[in-house]
Amino acid sequence: MVNTPVKWLFILPILFLAIFPTSQAAFADDVYKSIENPEAKAFGNRVCTNKECAKLAAMLIHNRNEKINPCEDFGAYGCGNFKITSNEKSYLLEGTQSIHRKLKRILESSPEPNEKQWCNLARSFYKKCLDTTSDVYPGLRVLLDEIGGWPALAAGTSDWTEFDESFEEYIANIHRKYQLDFFFKVKVFNVKHDNRRQNIIQVTPTLVEFNSSHLNDLSKHGSRFNPKLNIEQFDAELVETLTFHGEHKVLYDNTSISLQFPGTWYHYNYEFPNFDFEKYFTRLFDGIALFDRETVVAFESAEYFRQFHKLLRPENRRKVANLASVLVLRHLLDIPKTEQSCMYYMNSALKYPTAQMYIEKHMDRDAVLKATEMVKLVKEELRESLKNASWLDDQTRANAILKVDKMAYSVGYPENLFNDTYVEDNWNIPPSPSSESFYQLAARIERKLIASSLSQIKRQPDTISWEMPILMVNAYYYPTKNKVVIQQGLFQLPFYDKNLPDYVNYATMGFIVSHEIMHAFDNQGRFYDAFGNDVNWWENATSVKYDEKTSCYVKQYTDEGVDGMLTLGENIADNVGIKLAYGAYKRLLKRSGEYTEPALPTFEKFSMEQMFFIVYNHQWCSNGQIEVDANDPHPPEDIRVKMVARNSKHFSKAFNCEKTSPMNPEEKCSIW
Length: 672
Ligand SMILES: [Zn+2]
What we know:
single chain; alpha/beta; Collagenase (Catalytic Domain); Neutral endopeptidase, domain 2; 2 domains; 3-stranded mixed β-sheet; 28 helices; disordered N terminus; binds zinc ion; metalloendopeptidase activity; hydrolase; metalloprotease
């Protein structure tokens, strides 16, 4: 729903096998507790009375504003009272809080017998993260000493000893320990090279943000490390560090960034005579993986890497060490020690351990299987839409259908979540002794993760593991993997429950699935093929038609005051997404013959089609106080709902909106 990472590359197996129930009607009887009610004509005279239906109905009633005509302002009709009834900014945040509460209960309970070591590590991590009474400075000092010490803490004395290794080894040592933007970034990356997918090393120039306000923050820490510190001289060294960083900024800003093609180190070896990358890589991979001349590397911006050695003059050793220390310190102190941020950080750094603990307690396997079926039906619907889109030429259509066929999906949790060999490879970290500070523990975990990632070079690309946290209320599509991932947090109200009617589940999670799948065909995703390769598979004339069709959204959203170009991918995903979800739901009904589902209590007089849009709208309820980020490609929630309704013929038909009504304008945008 939110993220479309563009720089990940893997290929695809289809995950999770699911079995379709032999009879939908029999399946429905198992799920719903319902009563007869002749008022619910559109629902086969049945009203669902189970806990989930009652709960969702209560939410809908609480949040809507019935006085508003849905054809006038659909968003306000469904969510007008949300700000009065909810303590949270949105359901996305409310869902996150709910997961955090459940996880907190698990972490604070007594360990299970035979609990895995990594679960214990999560308990220690959480406890230490929340501990605000211990003095963190001795632990931070140890970490700074491990990278050769922070010279500014010895300002005015001769207590700092200049590191005696080369700049190459010094920088490699920091990159082994911390994932931070220290002159450049190194990542293991999966690309197509020599006609096969390979894990290669990508080296990217970076510039960390560091300014005078950061300087003031850091200045406060000096005397906490060393009460006898000469503050004046310490501050002077910080200013000098900022000036040095400014020199780096000038160099960085004045070099162009362009992707260099992957090549073996043998090929690159002679490109950068002034920085010994071989020495750097040898130190970086020492004890982790074999770096040799056959290792494939891609440098972004050869120009930068031919020049940045100018900063690494022998007289700059102290400045480089100061900059490294400042960056490490900022990196570590970046984890605010609040319950929320500890949870977020932990769900990222220890994503498999925490997800194992959570999912063992809270996962409903049937719910996951049912949601997986939904993904298959949405794919089927998209395949059909592509077949019927007359503006596609035959070759582009065939390429598009192949992309749908090959699209992988992972629903609820990764297939290897309980594969202890995998989890052990990545999170087999010795227990945290009581003397270890939170930051030392966080650094140890980070080092293990960096080493695990670097160890992937020359290995087969991993197509199964999730890169993003599992316990999130979200979903995403990876263009370079051609894969949709539905995260665990969506398995709760108002997004999904297996005991709710399908018109609810298809309008909520079904829409989210469809939205993500459409990212494969949005204005960026469409340039990746069925195998995640960055190739243009569109015939030129068809590409021109695509641009014409999508320019309709650009104009429409720009007229609403949002950046129509920046948000185009999301808008395509939203508008086609709702159509796919609706079509997939209709497909489900058709498959089961005369099948109808029960009404939600007190919603007997609505139609199933109206309910579909009402619950779709409802999942987007927010109190309007979510901070707007100018670079966010997602438009605000109210605009998302409004525009989807305005472009949807199904919506205006369901609510019988007059042609002149605001939610039913003459001009509608559509792709297929
Ligand atoms: Zn999206």
